[in-house]
Amino acid sequence: MSDTVRCWLVERTYDDKGLIRLVYAPPGGEEQYVTERAAATGADATAAMEVEAEKLAPIAEENAERYAQEADRMAERHEPDESV
Question: Which positions fall inside the DUF7967 domain (predicted)?
Fold first, then answer.
């Protein structure tokens, strides 16, 4: 069984191909999980998700502080399964 880490939505971007890029990070962490989905699906992003620890990747240094702050903010303001 894999260990999982609760990660919070810290960034959402849209591209010109109709994809939404979602970045999740653990509070105070230095790692991230990136996923993409088609905007046309209409699926909402949740405030948090459980991510297998081995699927986490390092955060670029220039994003680390911002992602840590945003993960903390999301954890304070939202329930993990809340649509955001």
Answer: 1-84
Task: Domain count for the chain, please give it.
Answer: 1
Q: Which domain holds residue 41?
A: 4-77
Instruction: Kindly state whether residue 82 falls inside one of the protein's structural domains.
Output: no
Residue recorded with tokens 């088609």 = 38
Question: The tokens 């304070």 sit on which residue?
Answer: 76
C-alpha span between 52 and 1 (Å, rounded): 10
Domain annotation covers residue 84: no
The burial class, CB within 10 Å (0-12 / 13-18 / 19+), for 16 is exposed
Tens of pLDDT, residue by residue, the chain (84 residues): 569 999 999 999 998 888 899 999 998 878 999 999 887 776 679 999 999 999 999 999 999 999 999 999 999 999 999 999
